[in-house]
Input
Amino acid sequence: MTEAAEFPTPDKNDDNFWATVSTLMEPSWTEPTTDDTFTMDERVHDAVRALAERISTRAQAYRTAGKPFDPVLMAAPDVQLALLRALYEAKQSVDRLAESAATVAGRSGANYAQLGAAWGGIKRQSARLKWPHAVVRKSTRESVPLHYAGGSAVVHHDADADAWWYTATAADQRERESEAVHSTYAEAIAAATEFLLAHALPGGKDPA
Output
């Protein structure tokens, strides 16, 4: 609680909001408690089970017959295989979201040692291999796409203005091209992320 109290908490309309938000603060997190991990397991299971019931051929047969899918049917081996397939999709989602989070953090100042620490304590070299584009040298001008909240964005540098700008397409297909007004990459990526979040689909669903 003491460490959290030391974090600055500017309001969004404050002049120093983006500069403050774009500054990496440490420690970045506290270790999850056992209750936290149990709650996570429950929420992941709820999401995965919902997908399993949609893709299970047994569940589809019950729906076709106009019959309710009793929860006890989850014990059927074929339904458990559908659950396993849904868990694989959950893993794929986690990997995509992890890459997005690592890219935002890395492009905003985090190094590979910090990314590795956040990802369960893997070594810096392993984090670099896992997310090779997350952290770039300060001298590079390469723009790396960001995928977030079902949408995507690319941040660019305007050499003439010595400022950053972004193009983005959100999950709801809204598009935005900002002006070159952001003084740092971190500020531009934060603005792009805000736009993508504001136009995410309900429930975090990907567009069809």
Summary: The longest strand covers residues 151-158. The chain has a mean pLDDT of 86. The chain has eight helices and four strands.
